[in-house]
Design brief:
Elements (H helix, E strand, L loop, with lengths): L1 E10 L6 E7 L12 E3 L6 E4 L5 E2 L3 H8 L2 H14 L4
Antiparallel strand pairs: 1-2, 3-4, 4-5
Length: about 90
């Protein structure tokens, strides 16, 4: 896993949690780019990075793609285990 600290903060569109870091659970992790998905560590809400790297809600197409992606499901389950609750 690769963690990137940023000079700006993002705010979850669901619970309002503010984060100043992101972690890529996939090999070859990279800093976030527009369209990359984000999972809120506090509540598990799934969003995407906008062009300005703030968080935005997923489009319906993105939501369906994320729901079909086993890697996303595994990340959500791992987050739930770490935080003591599954979403």
């Amino acid at each position: 896993m690769t963690t990137f600290r940023r000079n700006w903060e993002t705010k979850c569109t669901s619970c309002g949690y503010v984060s100043d870091a992101v972690t890529s659970p996939f090999s070859g992790g990279h800093e976030p780019s527009p369209g990359d998905l984000s999972i809120c560590i506090a509540c598990g809400h799934l969003t995407a990075f906008a062009a300005d790297l703030t968080l935005r809600e997923l489009t319906e197409v993105e939501r369906r793609q994320a729901e079909a992606d086993d890697r996303i499901t595994q990340c959500l389950l791992a987050r739930g285990l770490v935080m003591g609750k599954a979403k």
